[in-house]
Structures are given as structure tokens and as C-alpha cells.
Fold this sequence. Notes:
Layout: E1 19-20, E2 25-28, H1 34-43, H2 45-56, H3 65-80, E3 85-90, E4 97-104, E5 113-119, H4 127-142, E6 149-150, H5 158-163
Parallel strand pairs: 5-6
Antiparallel strand pairs: 1-2, 2-3, 3-4, 4-5
Amino acid sequence: MEGVEVAFLPEDFVVPTLVAGLRFRIRPITVHDVVKAYDAVMSSRERLWAEFGEIHGWPKADLSLEETLIDVAWRQREGELRRSFSFAVLTTDESRLLGTVRIDPPRKVGVDAEAVFWVRSDRDGSSVAEELEEFVREWVTTTWPFKSVRYPGRDISWEDWHALPSTGHP
């Protein structure tokens, strides 16, 4: 039916609000995380630009705290509307943002969801980064109602991902 959005998740699915690894906590990102998010992004900007910049134009060199607030608020609202889900990855005491995890409806055919995650540069290549990747891959396929999840930028290059046929989902 044209104009009717297909549900991304079953109505009765309870979106996780807190999960934890040995050295981190994952919970939905909120506007209260903006200062920590801005610090994590800007302290890792060069590496994040190498990973996402050419394809997504993020994070730009002059990214402001206000722009980060708008982005984080948008991601918080998208989660409340159950359209996509963005999570803060925090230290166990939540004093520092280590990275983020995002779970989106599939924009490409052949999968139930797509997931993207990153860790700040001072944690990239560390056991925390490895633990997060292992944790996220298991969490997304065992806790969430997905049979097939793709990790663009990890399992498939962004260029190859964008070349795949689209689902038509925004």
C-alpha cells in the first residue's frame, strides 16, 4: 500500500533500555549525552571521517556542539517513534561515552536490519573495541527479532553497500 510504512519491529517487541558488557553499558542515547557524544566524536574525528566521511560527510571538521545536540535529539526521537535506534556505549559508571551503536531498518534488500557502531579513537584496536563488536553482533541477532543483519562498513564496504538494490525505506 502506497504511503503506509511497513513496521520495522513487531508491536510487542520491547526495545532494550540497558545492556552491559564487562567494561561498558549500552542504553538509548539521549540529549543528556550530548557533551560526552561531542567529545567522543571530535576526539576521534580523523578516524571517524576515514570510516564515514567520504560516504556520509560526517563528522565534519567544524561540527558544533549545537549540531551534535540536534543530531542526538533526532536520534532519541527516532527511537521513541520506533523508526531507528541509537545507543550510547558508556563506561560502566557512565562518566564517558566510548562510542555508539545504531540499528536501522534495512535500506538494502536481503536483510532485516542494518547496524553500525564505532568506538572512540583511544579505544579503537583495544580489547574494549573487540568486546563491543562481539557483543553487538550477538546482541543484535539474539535479543532483537532479526534473522539477518548487515554491518555496512564492516562486513561490506560502504561503496558496495550503496551499490546494492534499495528497499525503498528512507
